[in-house]
Design a protein that fits this description.
2 domains, QueA-like, Thrombin, subunit H, nine-stranded mixed sheet, alpha/beta
């Protein structure tokens, strides 16, 4: 297995720069693994492929306005991008600017001081703020859109799911951006259930794998939680013959992390609650323990996410579907269209 095996050509014109309106008018490619078929629909048609008793597992994390302007004592400009909170006042961050090593002091727009306490890999820094920075984000923070999105987002809520609750992510769980309250209500009326997990997404999710052998890649660690109530709901759905459908790769990572923690070996093994860091790395050859189907967007070449989807549906099947998506004019990445893989 080589990283190049998960590469594909994507002209920039295919990268969605803005979300469609309404949310559920995005396109939906339906990939049936057993039948080997593709169908082209809109996301609002999702219910036609779901059954009463199916359980959609969504990630309720909320993106924080984590990009902060800052200034050096000399007046020079800098930037702080919050990645992961380590304590009330200490965060792992990406810090942009020259000469910003340990001991340097930065000031935010409203004067809050931030000290760089540890230099980490690359531009990562451990930063201690004079007080909890969350108090300053709504006023001074900006939404951290992925680097391939160049258009300004006029409504920050369009980079949140409609069910986002718990702040903590540096990026949105984008497969969930297609849901509307009306679509969710229609699915519930049909007998489809929903369950909420939490995984706070880090920016490493966008990082391409640079090693020749993807097994040598250092996977990012993210914090996730699957509560006892959700574990009970999953076990009940499985016992009744319902499918467990991960909405996005972050929900899939949470479900499969909890399954590993629970020592789940097959669909008859009960899953238990899990809360903590996960560095699960899903590559082809991995045997999924909980997830029966996945709703996902179209992912970056050579990313851990396309590898995860390839582990579920097969590398050649996924890459062939991506080529079809290009011919059919699908939109790719965070604000792009969706796939339902069953």
């Amino acid at each position: 297995m080589k990283t190049a095996d998960f590469d594909y050509d994507l002209p920039e014109a295919f990268i969605a720069q803005t979300p469609v309106e309404p949310r559920d008018s995005s396109r939906l490619m339906v990939l049936d693994r057993a039948a080997g078929t593709l169908a082209h629909r809109q996301f609002r048609d999702l219910g036609e492929y779901l059954h009463p008793g199916d359980l959609l597992v969504v990630n309720q994390t909320r993106v924080i306005p984590a990009r902060l302007k800052a200034w050096k004592p000399t007046g020079g400009k800098a930037e702080i991008l919050l990645l992961r909170r380590e304590s009330d006042t200490v965060w792992e961050c990406l810090v942009g600017g020259k000469g910003l090593g340990e001991g340097k002091i930065l000031k935010l727009e409203d004067g809050l001081e931030a000290e760089i306490v540890t230099s980490l890999e690359g531009s990562r820094r451990r930063v201690r703020f004079a007080e909890p920075v969350e108090n300053h984000l709504q006023k001074d923070g900006q939404m951290p859109l992925p680097p391939y999105i160049h258009e300004k987002l006029t409504d920050p809520e369009r980079y949140q799911t409609v069910y986002a609750k718990t702040p903590g992510s540096a990026a949105a769980p984008t497969a969930g951006l297609h849901f509307t309250p009306r679509l969710m209500a229609e699915l519930r009326e049909k007998g489809v259930q929903f369950a909420e997990v939490t995984l706070h997404v880090g920016l490493d999710t966008f990082a391409p794998v640079t090693e020749t052998d993807p097994r040598e890649h250092q996977i990012h660690t993210e914090w996730c939680e699957l509560t006892p109530a959700v574990a009970e709901k999953i076990n009940a759905a499985r016992a009744a013959g319902g499918r467990i459908i991960g909405v996005g790769t972050t929900s899939v990572r949470t479900l499969e992390s909890a399954a590993q923690h629970s020592l789940v070996t097959d669909h008859s093994s009960p899953i238990t609650a899990f809360s903590g860091p996960t560095s699960i790395y899903i590559l082809p050859g991995y045997q999924y323990r909980v997830v029966d189907a996945i709703i996902t967007n179209f992912h970056l070449p050579k990313s851990t996410l396309i590898m995860m989807i390839s582990a579920f549906a097969g590398r050649e099947t996924v890459l062939s579907a991506y080529e079809t998506a290009k011919r059919e004019g699908y939109r790719f990445f965070s604000f792009g269209d969706a796939m339902f893989i069953s």
